[in-house]
Amino acid sequence: MMRSLKASDIMWNHIEPVRLGAPLPVVVKHLLQNHVTGLPVVDKDRKVVGFVSEQDCIHALLVSNYHGEGEPSVDDVMKREPVTISPEMSVVDLAQNLGHGKPKVYPVEDHGRLVGIVTRTSILAELARVGAGIDVGRFAGAD
User: Fold this and answer.
1) For position 143, what pLDDT does the model report?
2) What keywords does the record list, in alphabetical order (predicted)?
3) Residue of 8, 32, 76, 86 with fewest CB within 10 Å of its CB?
4) CATH number for the domain harbouring residue 66
């Protein structure tokens, strides 16, 4: 049964992605409110064009506060060419590919459009539920 689990089974699709051009304070608020370590950045067609993490925001806030420069936008701090996964990707394969330095949040793209995110926490919750019979309830997927 665990073999057949797909990213689409555990993805969190109730999250609003960050739009290109969003001011950094809006991005930070979004990360904090959603309790995630990072979010995909999308264009007007919901195509994933970048990824912004807490670490990116911390660095940018330090630089902008220290140097008193203008307010950065997500375009200034995001990583381009982010790792995305397919809704059909096996959760087992994804779990086995998680390693040190790998993303903690994976944008899920279907036909070039963002359809959700999978977090390490959602993978852990599902593996615990299926493999160890641990009742973790329905977990939203936040880190």
Assistant:
1) 42
2) CBS domain
3) 32
4) 3.10.580.10
Q: Domain containing 70: what range?
A: 2-132
What number of other Cβ atoms are within 10 A of residue 117's Cβ? 26
* 108 lies in some domain: yes
Dist. CA 13–CA 109, nearest whole Å: 11
Evaluate whether 109 touches 102 at the Cβ level (below 8 Å): no
Number of domains into which the chain is organized: 1
User: Residue 48 domain-assigned?
Assistant: yes
* Amino acid identity at 22: A
Tokens read off for 96: 């086995």
How far is the CA of 51 from the CAs of 72, 86, 112, 122, in angstroms?
A: 15, 16, 15, 19
- Asked whether the beta carbons of 122 and 129 are under 8 A apart, the reply is no
CA distance 75 to 22: 8
Written as one letter, the residue type at 129 is R
- Cβ neighbours of 93 (radius 10 Å): 13
Note whether residue 138 is domain-resident. Answer: no
